[in-house]
Amino acid sequence: MSRINEKFAELKRKNEKALIAYIMMGFPNEKATITTVRGLVKGGADIIELGFPFSDPLADGPVIQNASTVSLEKGTNISKFFNLVKKIRKETDIPLVLMTYTNILYHMGYEKFISEAKKAGIDGFILPDMSIEESEEYTKSAENKADTIFLISPNTTKTRIEKIAKISTGFLYLVAVFGTTGVKTSIKNYTLTAIKNVKKQTKGKIPVGIGFGVSTPEDVKKYINAGADAVIVGSAYLKLIEKTKPTQLESKITSFTKSLKKQTMWQNDSELKI
Asked: Engineered SS bond to 46: which of 18, 37, 146, 157, CB 3.0-4.6 Å?
């Protein structure tokens, strides 16, 4: 069983949902990344998504695009990324997911990249631009090595969700809003409906995580209440990293994470009216 599956099984036993935190590796520097990870672990994050910077990030809003640019300018490359993952692994066994774009893996070769990533301590991959039609080589290379987490959106058809759920492992990533990632958005009724529908369709075979625009404890509470198994918070963390002094970074990340995690323990058995 993968670290990600073990984590979801553990949370199920505790009647909790998962808080997944996204950060950009090397933003604003390597030291800040290590400090942030310490804060996330102390604050109770369940899984950490590590962004590898890409020059043309299609799914990312301005906050993540900016972090990606800064990381690339600071010289983040594959070998530095893997070395940083190894450093993180010396401190924690928290599940780590690599989020980047297909071209990065394709360039090195799926088999080689995934083996190197696993060796460094990566447990799964999210490639927003990877379509299921072109995923065979990727999923075969990852088999028994790492989880392959695919994205769906509120308007993905039932037939397509079925196909995506079959080849996804770890969890299904439901995009909360149409468009790119980012902090500023209101929770849409169509998203809450989508959570319920996807949960009904997948029948608990794979956890459903929700991301894009999730930024406050209130957001987390609403999505958990609608039935999500995990919430993914990214841009809000990057904004916090950007505006916080290095000396206060770990404590600020810890307290923000605690405020989010608290809501994943919040259970309401009554149906949320939509």
From this structure: 18
CA nearest 21: which of 268, 258, 265?
258
Domain count of the fold of the chain = 1
Structure confidence by residue, pLDDT tens digits, 146-194:
999 999 999 999 999 999 999 999 999 999 876 555 545 678 899 999 9
Query: Is residue 270 situated within a structural domain?
Result: no
Global pTM? 0.92
What the block records as the tokens of 194 is 């989508």
**60 counts as catalytic:** yes
Residues of the domain holding 26: 3-264
Q: Residue 84: pLDDT above 60? A: yes
In a domain, 274, yes or no: no
Q: Which CATH number fits the domain that encloses residue 118?
A: 3.20.20.70
Q: Does residue 144 lie within any of the structural domains?
A: yes
User: Which residue in 192, 147, 148 sits closest to 174, CA to CA?
Assistant: 192
Q: Which of 16, 60, 229, 250 is catalytic?
A: 60
Considering the candidates 16, 30, 46, 49, report the single residue annotated as catalytic: 49
162 is an active site residue: no
Helices and strands (DSSP H and E) totals, the chain: 12, 9
